[in-house]
Amino acid sequence: MPKYGILVDISRCLGCKSCALACKAENKLREGVYWLRLEDEVLSTSQGVQRYVFPMACLHCGNPSCARVCPVGAISKEEDGTVQRNPEKCVGCKFCISACPFGQSRFDEKAQKAEKCNLCKDRQAKGEAPACAVNCPTQARLAISPDKLMDEAEKRLKEIKKLGLDYRLYSGEPVGGTQVVYLLPNGIDLKDSPQGKEISSTIGIWQNMVKPVAKVGLGGVVGAVAVAGIINNWKREEK
Q: Which ranges of 178-219 does DSSP label H, i.e. alpha helix?
């Protein structure tokens, strides 16, 4: 079982970037590479126009589309509930980036590899909480045991609503649940959320047709032609 999940409470977020900087330092990421970034949204509410700043990184989906579309098995859903990448296997095809419903897969141009948050797997292996949560000064990003995650989220949501704030809980039902859950103001949808984005037809073809064929080892030439066609389609879609 996983040791920690993450609760992100936007009502407490100061936009101080402590989480993003801690993530970068902990994972020794190169200049210009971030696994956790701050997003911002402006809403018109009964209290007037308000700007919200909040952290976004991989949500560690229960049914990760990035793993389903990876042609080389570089992404896997682990027993601890996290979604992990094997950089040694990654070929830089960017299929996972196109498939991520939250837009949280990154591409390192220098390394020509896809990258994302690993929920501080090395820290968790030692029983330590993810660095982003440890360094949050307001517990807007809280590391908590997954079996207590939803209870804490519901508790906080009730407290927020008592203050007259219009918030909701997002726990990733469209993607099989997520190990990172959010308390969001109504009117804010997580960037590229599953409600507003479908997996492209190219990715769907790979997932449902070509990948199964590749697994049973049929014809290298057929596989090469199929992959070439998919990559060409993907490049057109990206443009």
A: 201-205, 211-215
Pure H helices in the chain? 18-26, 65-69, 95-99, 121-125, 131-134, 146-162, 201-205, 211-215, 220-238
Are 83 and 77 spatial neighbours (Cβ–Cβ below 8 Å)? Answer: yes
Q: Are strands 5-9 and 83-85 parallel, antiparallel or unpaired?
A: unpaired
pLDDT number for residue 189:
83
Domain residue spans of the chain: 5-185, 201-238
Task: Tell me the pLDDT band of 80, cut-offs 50, 70 and 90.
Answer: confident
Give the angle subtended at the CA of 120 by the CAs of 116 and 122, to the nearest 5°: 120
Q: What is the dotted CATH code of the domain comprising 5-185? A: 3.30.70.20
**In angstroms, rounded to a whole number, what is the distance separating the alpha carbons of residues 160 and 53?**
17
What's the one-letter identity of residue 166? Answer: D
**Could you tell me where the beta strands, DSSP code E, fall in 58-144?**
75-77, 83-85, 106-108, 113-115, 141-144
Predicted TM-score (pTM) of the model is: 0.81
How far is CA 85 from each of CA 38, 91, 116, 150, 211, rounded to the nearest angstrom? 22, 12, 8, 26, 18
Residue in the block written with tokens 């299929």: 95
Out of 38-42, 89-93, 207-211, which region has the weakest mean confidence (pLDDT)? 207-211
